[in-house]
Amino acid sequence: MPLELRGKPVVVRGNILNIANPGCWTAANPTYGLSLGVPRTFLLSTSFDF
């Protein structure tokens, strides 16, 4: 069922980065080697048509 606001379509998107939240490492670059990965991050966006 599409979401509507005052008869206009609304799109809501969500994303979670690092959902398990382990202590992870990521490759930074050849000079510095590894760096700590990103913490758990929640992203939410909406799109409206007027």
Structural notes for this entry:
- It is a single chain.
- This protein has strands spanning 3-5, 8-17, 25-29, 33-36, 41-48.
- It has 50 residues and is an all-beta fold.
- 0% of the residues are buried.
- The mean pLDDT is 86.
- The chain has one domain (3-19, 27-48).
- β1 (3-5) and β2 form a beta hairpin.
- Helices cover 0% and strands 60% of the residues.
- The strands form 2 sheets. The protein has a 3-stranded antiparallel sheet, with no helix packed on it.
Structural class label: mainly beta
The first-to-last residue Cα distance is 19 Å
Q: What would you report as the Rg, rounded to the nearest angstrom?
A: 18 Å
Largest sheet: 3 strands, antiparallel
Number of helices, where a helix is a run of at least 4 consecutive DSSP H or I residues: 0
- The amount of helix comes to under 10%
Shape: elongated
Average of pLDDT = 86
Count of discrete structural domains: 1
